[in-house]
Amino acid sequence: MISIAKPQMGPEEKQAVLEVLDSGIIAQGPRVKAFEGAFAAMCGVEHAVATTSGTTALHVALLAHGIGEGDQVITSPFTFIASANSVLYTGARPVFVDIDPLTFNLNPELIEAAITPRTKAILPVHLFGLLCDMDPIMAIAQKHGLQVIEDACQSHGALYKGKRAGSFGTGTFSLYPTKNMTSAEGGMITTDDPQIAEECRVIRQHGMRRRYYHDELGFNFRMTDVHAAIGLEQLKKLVGFNQARRQNAHYLSTHLKGVSVPCEPEGYQHVYHQYTLRVPDGRRDALRAYLQENGVGSEVYYPVPVHQQSFYVKDLGYHVSMPEAERAAQEVLSLPVHPALSQADLETIVARVNQFMLS
Ligand SMILES: Cc1ncc(COP(=O)(O)O)c(C=O)c1O
Fold first, then answer.
1. Mean pLDDT, all residues of the chain
2. How far does residue 280's CA lie from ligand 1's centre (Å)?
3. Is residue 326 within 8 Å of 307, Cβ to Cβ?
4. Beta partners for 48?
5. 299-344 pLDDT, tens digit each
6. Nearest ligand 1 atom, CA 82
7. What is the per-residue pLDDT across 53-69, written as a single tens digit (0 to 9) for each?
8. Which of 72, 78, 116, 144 is the most exposed place for a label (fewest CB within 10 A)?
9. Does residue 325 contact residue 98 with C-beta atoms inside 8 Å?
10. Cα(149)–Cα(130) distance, rounded to whole angstroms?
11. Would the CB of 150 count as within 6 Å of ligand 1?
12. Confidence of residue 80 (pLDDT cuts 50, 70, 90)
């Protein structure tokens, strides 16, 4: 079976972990600090704050921006649930704006109609490794005095007009094993604002500015040095990983037939966290079953948009229509694109998809 994801762990990561275990400093220590510095440099920002996951990075970033009870945050309904759940954790409410059918990302033209006096922030999700159209999003945020918290959990190193994901507003990243780089589990917040960075550090560590003096409610969302050691080694390989993903995507897009392949608009650099097709004529699930029977892994990201998830409907009372997100949920299929694919794997993927789609 050609798997949909495959973490790439080499001798460097193993050696780095052993060094931490031998060092005696296993919880948050010098590797976390070094990882934060290197990650900030990769994004082209001043500060990075490591956390335990992408979810906690989002949660902490929202709290650091003062988002809470009674506030509204505009985001995409076509994403992993954590983008919206992190807003709920703060007591605020996600307000969904439909997606652009070509990019699968928040459609900037629909944002202004969703702004109310309670809107505090926009949370664009750079889905599948492609940035949102950030110029209009930043312009709308500035015009209405809104914060921007980027969900860059799927877009490490991706570019929009020469700027990296996570460098527009406050960025949040996941370092889960299937991501473009990993620390096993982990998250990262990126910002140019020293006060936001400081607030994130305080919230991450039980609201503590001075040792054992707690001025506000915080959490234990600290990354360990074991995770940071893996992350540091992975970060060194990120450019190569992303190049391999882009090459694999290019091969697939050149050879696949009968499906709509992902787009990379002018001025963007996609990092293909996922290589996501649209399958026409209601054939998506049948293609998926055919691929499964013939040794090619695939996955539907995401079969249910967030506003249609059962607890959003039943418990939170969401009754909105997001036609493009709903259509995408019916049509999308992600194929393997990870750096470990061989040329033979790519040829097999293309052959199986084309056999089915052209039959
Ligand atoms: C778009 C998006 N947001 C948030 C998250 C949450 O990250 P984590 O799983 O590290 O908590 C993920 C990860 O799966 C994601 O894909």
1. 98
2. 28
3. no
4. 190
5. 999 999 999 999 999 999 999 999 999 999 999 999 999 999 999 9
6. 4
7. 999 999 999 999 999 99
8. 116
9. yes
10. 16
11. no
12. very high
Q: Is 328 in the pocket of ligand 1 (CB under 6 A)?
A: no
Residue 156: per-residue pLDDT: 98
Residue 182 Cβ < 6 Å to ligand 1? no
How far apart, in Å, are the Cα atoms of 226 and each of 12, 86, 354? 13, 25, 44
Cα gap 357→276, rounded to integer Å: 16
Is the C-alpha dihedral spanning 158, 74, 90, 321 positive or negative?
Answer: negative
pLDDT at 169: 97
- Band (113; pLDDT cuts 50, 70, 90): very high
Phi, psi angle pair for 274, to nearest 5°: -125, 150
Q: Is residue 17 a contact partner of residue 11, using CB atoms and an 8 Å limit?
A: no
Q: Which pLDDT score, from 0 to 100, does residue 101 have?
A: 98
β-bridge partners, 71: none
Buried b (16+ CB within 10 A) or exposed e, 265-300: eeebbbbbbbbbbbbeeebbeebbebbeebebbbbb
Tokens of 328: 């995408």
What pLDDT digit, counting tens, does each position of 98-112 carry? 999 999 999 999 999
pLDDT in tens, 137-170: 999 999 999 999 999 999 999 999 999 999 999 9
For β-strands 159-160 and 268-269, DSSP reports them as antiparallel
Amino acid identity at 136:
P
Give SS3 for 296: strand
What is the structure's pLDDT at 202?
98
Phi, psi of 87 (to 5 degrees): -70, -45
**DSSP assignments along 298-338, one per residue:** -B-S-SS-GGGSHHHHHTT------HHHHHHHHHEEEE---
CA 8 to chain centre: 18
Using CA atoms, how far residue 23 sits from 19, 30, 222, in Å, is: 6, 11, 18
58 CA distance to ligand 1 middle (Å): 9
Phi, psi of 296 (to 5 degrees): -120, 115
> Distance, CA 57 to ligand 1 centroid (Å)?
9
Amino acid at 333: L
